[in-house]
């Protein structure tokens, strides 16, 4: 696998983790909305949230490097809509 392919795969994996984080947040919100949330389930989801967040945070530098390998010179947080569209086209299967 060349550098560009590795960068693409890393970014896809990173975005999959970000999606899992969003799903975990939604599950936490649903649990919290219950009158008497199951504390065991709530605790499990909070731990899951922490693990995913730690994984995403620890991979930020590699994500930025992967973006550079694909021709982007800024972090994802600073992307314009045009940059996001370009990245989406690059990552399409």
Quick gist of this model?
With 93 residues, the chain is mostly helical. 77% of the residues lie in helices and 0% in strands.
Helix and strand topology:
Layout: H1 3-33, H2 39-58, H3 60-69, H4 81-91
Helix pairs in contact: 1-2, 1-3
3D architecture notes:
The protein has 93 residues and is an all-alpha fold. The protein has one domain: Up-down Bundle (Four Helix Bundle (Hemerythrin (Met), subunit A)). The chain has helices at 3-33, 39-58, 60-69, 81-91. Helix 1 runs antiparallel to helix 2 and helix 1 packs across helix 3. 6% of the residues are buried.
Labels describing this entry:
4 helices, single chain, elongated, Four Helix Bundle (Hemerythrin (Met), subunit A), 93 residues, mainly alpha
| Amino- and carboxy-terminal Cα gap | 16 Å
Number of DSSP helices? 4
Catalogue the unreliable spans. none
Structural category is mainly alpha
CATH topology annotation: Four Helix Bundle (Hemerythrin (Met), subunit A)
Number of β-strand runs: 0
Number of domains: 1
Q: Based on CA inertia axes, which overall geometry fits?
A: elongated
- Kindly estimate the percentage of residues that lie in beta strands according to DSSP: under 5%
* CATH level 1 class label: Mainly Alpha
Order of helices and strands: HHHH
């Amino acid at each position: 696998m060349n550098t560009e392919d590795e960068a693409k795969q890393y970014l896809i994996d990173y975005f999959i983790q970000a999606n899992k984080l969003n799903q975990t947040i939604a599950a936490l919100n649903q649990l919290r909305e219950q009158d008497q949330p199951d504390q065991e389930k709530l605790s499990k989801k909070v731990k899951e949230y922490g693990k995913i967040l730690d994984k995403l945070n620890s991979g930020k530098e590699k994500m930025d490097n992967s973006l550079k390998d694909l021709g982007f010179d800024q972090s994802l947080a600073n992307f314009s809509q045009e940059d996001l569209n370009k990245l989406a086209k690059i990552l399409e299967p």
